[in-house]
Amino acid sequence: MKRVLSVASEAVPLVKTGGLADVVGALPAALSGQGWQMRVLIPAYRGVLDKLGKTKVVWSDDDLFGGPARVVLGKVGGVEAMALDAPHLFDRAGGPYSDGQGDYWDNAERFAALSWVAARIARDGVGDWRPDVLHAHDWQGALAPGYMRYWGVGIPSVLTIHNMAFQGRVGANKISALRLPPEQFTPDGYEYWGDISTLKAGLTATDAITTVSPRYAEELMRGEFGLGLEGVIQARAASVHGFLNGIDPEVWSPDADPHITPFTAARMAGKARNRAALEAEFGLEVPGPLAILVSRLTPQKGIDLLPGALEDFIAGGGGLAILGSGDAWAEDMVRGLATRYPGRVGVRIGYDEALSHRMFAGGDAVLVPSRFEPCGLTQLYGLRYGCVPVVAAVGGLADTVIGATPATEAAGAATGIVFHPVDELALRQSMRRLLSLYADCKGWAAMVRRGMKADWGWEASAARYAALYDSLIAP
Fold first, then answer.
1. Which CATH number fits the domain 269-453, given the four candidates 3.30.43.10, 3.40.50.970, 3.40.50.300, 3.40.50.2000?
2. Which of 9, 13, 110, 345 fits as disulfide partner to 140, beta carbons 3.0 to 4.6 Å?
């Protein structure tokens, strides 16, 4: 079986802060049926080694960016995983990237070390295991293809951009600390407006670039999405590919979800019971459609558009349940909405995985008004649970939701509401559209069933990743 080493800053079920972890954790099992064995390398943050269970040391170094380190190999969920155990870098009480007061001061060194080890494993192997391809994720793993190129390692690499907003930018005074060759500090290397960009180092060095949706791959060539690296993406356009993320159909399965009253597209009675339970949980009484929002509360997610978009929706009988956390102003704003619309808007600050399942099961529609969204999983969960997506026409949202228009409705193809541009007026009009579609009971039920029957698992995307790997190692 062919081998691929995946290097990332997080992976389920070992550690998760966002969708990156879902992708990195899902790919190994999905690829096993495609003739590829994937091992994942992540940092051994505090608690990770306990989750790996029985392990063995497969690599060590007395001085990895300031201290001793080792790589241990274990299994989790039947998948082989490696953890970089470097206590001076990763054994900390806070999260993977920050301590709650701000980002760690040495994040550049921490993830350069991760990339360095990945490149060493690609070059030398561990035991009798050596990868045929290295697959790096985001800025935290992006230096791995860079080191490989600088060292002349003849193994192909892939770099996936999950979110271009995070570019690993640090001052040029870190060149030596990150063990980078000074001669590559050029516009064609890792130099970025006088600084270092670890993401750019990977983009200019890797053999192939992937993003997590076809639309996002195209958007990254434009300034508003490329965020200063659009020229690099344009120059490498022939090597850029967009592969949609998938979801785990066993974890997200309305007919077998332990958190809810089960239901299926053919037997929807459980959906109504879940809605009643959700209204009770949030203290709501909603005569019309019950929308949900499960999101980080940040400008990227379009949270600031809600106050001006809700008034007509609430007046028309709608309601909204919100789960999320983020910027202080945004948390205060959604609390204010609950005060302004008692019994119609309910808020939970924070994140609760079980509650999110109950919200998708009980909600009629899920709002995703993001200004940019590389792929998005929220709308896929909504489709799976009969919770109709109302989404902005960006990135993976546009790739996965078929907007209700006269043409798509006549063809019996619509699965949601898609709006553009991403502003308050467009969202307000979409909420009005939601009211009218919901009032058509027969048409609404048909749209819900179409969304539930769509397959958003990993099989198709895993096949595309496997085909890309195969093309890179082809003679």
1. 3.40.50.2000
2. 9
